[in-house]
Amino acid sequence: MAFWTYMLKCADGHFYVGHSDNLEARVAAHQSGTIGGYTHCRRPVVLVWSEYFSKREEAIAAERQIKGWSRAKKRALIDGDWGLISRLARSRS
Q1: Helices 82-92 and 71-79, interaxial angle, to 10°?
Q2: Distance (Å, whole) CA 72 – CA 16
Q3: Going by CATH, does the domain composed of 3-92 fall within 3.30.70.260?
Q4: Both ends of the chain: CA-CA distance in Å?
């Protein structure tokens, strides 16, 4: 079974990170407001990043890790700038 960790950019510019076993349905639920919580009042949302995992535990671990990142590091992930992600990780330690 496929599992996804994903990042949405909300209408107010904030990022939301989550995981799902059905990425398209989950993004549609955020977009329609079916899912309450953080994104409900920040619509519309745009999917800006996602990654596939073969195990739910891996997707959850990635979600937790990314949620703890700075905005700059999340932006670098969206841009695929692994060098910047590495530099930002070193600067925090």
Answers
A1: 160
A2: 14
A3: no
A4: 36
42-59: b or e for each residue (b if 16 or more CB lie within 10 Å)?
Answer: beebebbbeeebeeeeeb
Strand order in the sheet with 3-10: 15-20, 3-10, 45-53
CA–centroid distance for 47 within its chain: 8
The better pLDDT of the pair 59, 92 is held by 59
Residue 39 CA from chain centroid, whole number: 12
- Per-domain boundaries in the chain: 3-92
Q: How far apart are CA 60 and CA 45, in angstroms?
A: 21
Q: What is the pLDDT of residue 41?
A: 96
> Residue 84 is which amino acid?
L
Give the model's pLDDT for residue 91.
81
